[in-house]
Sequence to fold (746 residues):
Amino acid sequence: MTRLTTVSGLFLTLTALFFIPGGTFAQSSEASSWDTAPAWQIHRQMAEAKSRALYDQRYVDRIVSASAAANTQTNYDVKFYDIHLRVNDTTSILYGAVKMVAEATEPGVSQVQVDLFDNMVIDSIVSPAGALTYTRASNMVTVTLDKAYNPGGRFSVTIGYHGHPTEGGFQAFSFGSRLGKKVISSLSEPYYSRTWWPCKDRNDDKADSFKICIEVDTSFYVGSNGSLDSIRTASANSKRFYYAVHYPMVNYLFSVAISPYTIWKQYYWYNAGKDSMVITHAVYSDRYDYSLPRWGITPVAIAMLSQSYGQYPFITEKYGHSNFEWGGGMEHQTMTSMTGADFGFQEDVVVHELSHQWVGDMITCKSWHDIWLNEGWASYSEAIFYLNRDGWQGYRNWMTTMDWNHNGSVYVTDTTSVASIFSRTVYDKGAWVLHMLRGVIGETKFSQLLNTYFNSQYRHSSLTSAEFQALVESVYGQDLSWFFQEWLYGTKRPAYNWAYYTEPATGGGYDTYIWVSQVQTTNPLVFQMPIEFAFDYSGYPTDTITLVNDARREILKVHTAQQPYQVTLDPGGWILKYQTYLDWNMRILTTSADLKSGKAFLPYRDTIEQKGGIGPFDPTFVTGTLPPGLTIDANNVISGTPTDTGTFAFTVRIRDMYSGYIDQADLSIRINPADYKPGDVNFSQFMVDLSDLSSLVSYLTGGGYVLPVPKLADVNNDCLVDLTDLSILVAYLTSGSATMVIGCAS
Ligand SMILES: [Zn+2]
Fold:
């Protein structure tokens, strides 16, 4: 029997819920073990439910993979589906008639390909002009149209069919039961619509609208998409549910949930209470009491998410929940399907699936590589909900529970693996990508991004990760490829070892040295991120200083008027990271960028600076060497005359012989080629002047001068260094008129 129960006491206004939190419901409810579960456990349940179902399906049925999507389907654009289904719950046979209205996108389109599993029996395929011919192969129906259509030319194809949709451990269309009551439901994500209804089964072509008519036994209620326009008697034993979807919808979101549910309703009030939208809950009758306070948060959750994302995207239709026999939740457009277990009534699960109405349903990932745009966003939306309801602490706490040692990249490289499409990394690290993006671009730009994104050309459409990146960059006004490269396509996270040291500065105030080293051995080896450091003082407001860190080891020197009693790395928790604070002891301050470059055959001198050591020091080379001709002494002074060119990289370990402290650093020195100038007799590589003249005089008069580079003194290029060269040099120095060249003397 059907119990259509309307609970009038639950027609609540938002105001009532805001001011009497938790006190609105007379019914009490037992606690759930999920109440205290962290986000990652919730997402593991969500992700594993999705991936397990799909894995079973693939394993049992060898269902075609997403990569099998035919490129030939790009020759038409679906506008509208009119779907009539009759469900025989006794024989478990589905009878369907699906009319697809589409437009050609290429000249001369005379054939179109429609996805439908081979086991479903086609009874007829017709157009308004009459019967159409077709062939079937590899779960694809190739239909020959009544004529050729040019771009914009509109045609319709109506496919009549019946059959028992392919079964597996779980399946896209399931004839199940619970406590002796039938539960018939669908879950088509990611590419299983084709197992039970003929369609162009791709994410990148949303139909603009749907009409849905489902005929079932009179004992059932049917939850489906869009607005429920009417329920009409079809026969003595059956009735029809008429739904209309007025917004674009991607195939995999078309769903049915059929069972003798208990129905209860709420309203979401908006426009200052002048308008309302119905919320329909189709719950298993034994879960009705349990559902009241838990699904009852829905109007508040819609308000909370609308606050950040803009108005609920299907505001002229409805929202709701239908229980179904599957281990998780599925964000079917305007009617989420939820497990009847406790998990399906959990606050964060309700919020997660609701948020998919914006992220996943209104804006859909264009391919399954980009699933984080659905699942990462929805997981992040939970934190948005807690931010808007509970403030920043609630937000941070929730983000923290999604911080674990994620594996793999957020971008899914292998879409044939359902486990990787629906992995927890996609959910949890995907949420962190958005959180970190917020940290990088700042609050003002992030709120502009939300406003732009949810009103962009991708609204009621789909997009790729690259398109998302381009949109973010257009809002931010700067390139962010480094960010997406490391966080979306890269794996793991930075591990920061760090230390700081404060001392009174000459001239007043204090200097603080912050030493940061990235020590992760995973890819990427270097993360570029702005790292905030908070400086806390006694009796003065906290300062925040940002280091744009993009090297394995960096030193930041900060001058402050007051003495900080504490410095904190990333106090706001904006970076997914590991961090280890080390004692300062002694740290090398010099980086490769600090060491001077030299020139071949010119004296070189620089010092590897440290802070904390007393000296003398005992520098040794762990790897590499100094440029030939250079040495380092017990004061860490590098000196000598380099005799070779190039970049010389080395790892130097410095031990303070006084304290025993040790630090090491990867450094490099670049030695540039010598600068040969004609007349530069003494090879100063600087300028030609009187000292060159006196050197040449000394050489020519037996004064004992040794020419370092004879060809520089052979300014007339006769392969001799003699008095002729001297007279040319004199003329050059006195009148500047003489021409000198590098000669051939050796
Ligand atoms: Zn989700």
Residues 46, 331, 352, 356, 375, 378 surround zinc ion (CB under 6 Å). Residues 493 and 576 are 6 Å apart (CA to CA).
